[in-house]
Amino acid sequence: MAIFVIGGTGFIGIRVIPLLVAQGETVVCMDINPNAPTLAGLGDQVTVVRGDVTQFDDVISNMEASKADRVINLSYNLGQDLPPHRATKLNIVGMDNCFEAARILGVKHTVFASSLAVSGQQKNFGERAVTEDDYKYAVVQYGSHKAFNEFQAKDYIEKHGMTITAVRPANVTGPDKVRGSVDHVNCITRPARREAISFPFADAMRIPIHVDDIAEVFVRVLMKDKPAHAIYNSGGQTISLGELADIVRGYLPDAKISFEKQTGGKEASGNYLIDNSRLVREFGVQYRPYREWVLQIINDVRADTGQPPIRG
Ligand SMILES: NC(=O)c1ccc[n+]([C@@H]2O[C@H](COP(=O)([O-])OP(=O)(O)OC[C@H]3O[C@@H](n4cnc5c(N)ncnc54)[C@H](O)[C@@H]3O)[C@@H](O)[C@H]2O)c1
């Protein structure tokens, strides 16, 4: 049996697939952009095919040919920028195509990426950690589509008895992240490239999780036959951009990070206090200290730009 990964040549997918291969799994990855040099090095255990998740024929024919018993959908538009029709096709119809094909083919377990964005702004909850059962306050395109994806999964679970699990990643970070929330990434990568960077508010709150940690979460959840819950918060490291800048300056004393204002950003911040005890209890995940990840990202960028590594 293989694993069928949709949207697997993106930022998270290229980290998920090697972990699956390392566990001895065979992977068929379908992506509209099949160009993934890092996957090419994984040999016969990985096949990358071009396919469009918005086209049901592409999804079911490739899923069937893969003979997969587990499916993970990572394809999405990470932003609010698409016109409604295109966004709905990719984010909503694409998800339905994935669930419906998995239903028809009797897939054992389907996993998809939801997001912390379903919860909307932290101020809706006060200063307390948000759980998977809390009300969803998403108002923008991306978060509203993720919230609806969770409903789609519930509908398939209730009406067809399927096993479908959502993971809600927090603000995923890594040296090559270019889509979605990127201010917390740029706060590390720009100084590592010796570039100056400025942000509106030092007290803007984020909850980063390193892409290697979220890849591990996806794999653990995917490989379980019947998780106890349908939705899992990843959680991460609650931190303000000002505090993150201080960590970066600890490694790069000359870092040119500035803020237009010290306060005013917290009130407008998305969900930054997240209860991930469900995931931790059931899957035993433990994240590396965030400070160490910051150093690794700095050194990844320095390696890319021909600079020597910094010691922790
Ligand atoms: N990166 C984050 O911070 C973050 C946070 C929360 C949730 N997520 C979710 O995790 C998932 C993966 O995110 P990512 O950061 O790897 O994003 P990404 O944009 O790097 O990867 C998405 C992949 O989907 C593919 N894709 C786009 N349209 C497609 C189509 N029509 N058919 C087939 N494939 C298509 C893209 O080519 C890309 O490889 C997404 O669902 C995203 O919403 C990401």
List the main descriptive attributes of the protein structure presented here.
312 residues; alpha/beta; Rossmann fold; UDP-galactose 4-epimerase, domain 1; 2 domains; 10 helices; 18% strand
Secondary-structure blueprint of this entry?
Layout (H helix, E strand, L loop, with lengths): L1 E5 L6 H10 L3 E6 L5 H4 L5 E5 L5 H11 L1 E6 L10 H22 L3 E5 L27 H20 L3 E5 L2 E3 L9 H10 L4 E5 L3 E2 L1 E3 H13 L7 E3 L5 E2 H11 L5 E5 L15 H7 L6 H15 L8
Parallel strand pairs: 1-2, 1-4, 2-3, 4-5, 5-6, 6-11, 7-10, 8-13
Antiparallel strand pairs: 9-12
Helix pairs in contact: 1-7, 3-4, 4-5, 6-8, 6-10
Description:
The structure is a single chain. The protein is an alpha/beta fold and 312 residues long. It folds into two domains: 2-171 and 210-233, NAD(P)-binding Rossmann-like Domain (Rossmann fold); 173-207 and 237-270 and 288-304, UDP-galactose 4-epimerase, domain 1. It has ten helices and 13 strands. The protein has helices spanning 13-22, 37-40, 56-66, 84-105, 141-160, 183-192, 211-223, 241-251, 277-283, 290-304; strands spanning 2-6, 26-31, 46-50, 68-73, 109-113, 164-168, 171-173, 197-201, 205-206, 208-210, 231-233, 239-240, 257-261. It has a seven-stranded parallel β-sheet, sandwiched between helices. Strand 2, helix 2 and strand 3 (46-50) form a beta-alpha-beta unit. Helix 1 (13-22) crosses helix 7 (211-223). It is globular, with a radius of gyration of 19 Å. 45% of the residues are buried. Nicotinamide-adenine-dinucleotide binds next to strand 7.
